[in-house]
Amino acid sequence: MPFMAPPADSERAGLRGFLAQQLDGLRHTAFGLTEAQIRLSPARSTLTVGGLLKHVTLTVNAWSARAEAAPELFSDPRLDAMAEGDDFRVREDETLASLLAAHDAATARALAVADTADLDAVAPARPAPWFPDGFEGWTVRWILLHVIEEVARHAGHADILREEIDGATGYPLIAAAEGLGDLGFVQPWTPDRD
């Protein structure tokens, strides 16, 4: 989806549009990278573009599953991997293609939630010391807003990493990934550009 979320005539369309736009934006940060480049951490952190794709995919799937299960309680062992920090590490057997395929599947799942789930349904939460007294869970609406927030945060991280890797920035990457051609105000990124 190029540059901005589409106009929305309803809350559901707005949620879906911003969710798709942020997930696409993160995906575009990996456009044209090599297997070695998705594992680079050119900033002071250990974050990588591949690791961010992996983390966001797990996060989107976990929250989508909560929304799909609402009003029933949801549990997923993948959350253990997230708690251990393994969700940011790209294993040797993982490739850019496999990370993007998983990201695309998670995107489709989240968009299906945005399209069909009852936005007022409550996904219950297990009690935890960080929740306020009386907290019972999240509405699906809150879940979708939280996922948009989470993806946007990590898409921003990925933007910075990508620019450090090869100088590529968001709009030229989007133009290249979407096959938009020269738009006058932006030219598509190419591997030989500075």
Q: Round the mean pLDDT to the nearest integer and report it.
A: 91
CATH architecture descriptor name: Up-down Bundle
- How much strand content do the residues show? under 5%
Biggest sheet, strands in spatial order?
Answer: 1-2
CATH superfamily: dinb family like domain
State the helical fraction.
Answer: 40-55%
Number of domains: 1
The outline comes out as: globular
Rg from C-alpha positions? Answer: 18 Å
CATH class type: Mainly Alpha
Query: Residue ranges: pLDDT <50 for 5 or more in a row?
Result: none
The helix-strand sequence is HHHHEEHH
Number of helices: 6
- Structural class estimated from helices and strands: mainly alpha
- CATH topology (level 3) name: Four Helix Bundle (Hemerythrin (Met), subunit A)
Provide a descriptive summary of the structure in words.
It comes from Tsukamurella tyrosinosolvens. This is DinB superfamily protein. It holds the Pfam family MST. The protein is mainly α. It has a single domain (11-178), classed as Four Helix Bundle (Hemerythrin (Met), subunit A), CATH 1.20.120.450. Helices cover 52% and strands 3% of the residues. The protein has helices spanning 11-28, 49-69, 78-83, 96-116, 140-166, 170-177; strands spanning 122-124, 137-139. A two-stranded antiparallel ribbon has the order 1-2. Helix 1 runs parallel beside helix 5 and helix 2 packs parallel to helix 4 (96-116). It starts with 10 loop residues before the first helix and ends in a 17-residue tail after the last helix. The mean pLDDT is 91.
